[in-house]
Amino acid sequence: MKKLLVSLMVVSALFAEATKEEQLAKKIALEASMQYQKDLQNAMEKVLYSKGPAAAIQFCSKHAYPITMRTTLKLRRKLGVKLKLKRISFKYRDSADAPNVLNVEPLKELQRQDPRHPQVVMRVYPNRIDVYEPIYVQKVCLKCHGSNLSGEVKKALSKYYENDKARGYHVGDFRGAVVVTIERRSLQKLIKKQSQTDTNAQ
Length: 202
Ligand code: HEC
Description:
- By secondary structure, the protein is an alpha+beta fold.
- It is 60% helix and 14% strand.
- It is built from 6 helices and 4 strands, in the order ααβαββααβα.
């Protein structure tokens, strides 16, 4: 009986830790995803408004990945955990953004959601937590992802993307997701550090 009680306590303690981890993962992922989308959009818009859509497409084809890497490093330092960032979509432009087997179900879950009340979707694995945040189409996106693309845009797209599926969208459509992957060991370390600072402060 005692043994059972002890193991129950251990299990519930582990469970409490897991939820603490999940809460922190969600908070970190929301901040990371916001920053990531902001960095990409700012860089893209700078070229779009100074040099036009064709130059912006060329810019994205070259710089989307380096920007992802730069933002990843910046956020690792700022947030104090090991994380990775990527964008995925069922209707992708860059085949590197196609969902993998593990991404398919969470992406479907996001797709079924009411866009007025978007929620993140989480998957907890032994070593990492994946947090999925939905991306929706805004007006500015239509220049390159809409259904009425200019000749110049079509030409630029066909130059860089052979199998572009990311067209024909409307404002408010579900576009895909940002996936923030956080290593659990680094999360656990951060939780420990935070609770130590809390105790010291008392
Ligand atoms: C100037 C043209 C342009 C505009 C405007 C634009 N995009 Fe894109 N988008 C691209 C290109 C080019 C890629 C492929 C980048 C790459 O090669 O990684 C892309 C890729 C993406 C991806 C990654 C998935 C995929 O299809 O490969 C998402 C998500 C995305 N765009 C969302 C948006 C959203 C949301 C907006 C509006 C806020 C937007 N885009 C505006 C050109 C554009």
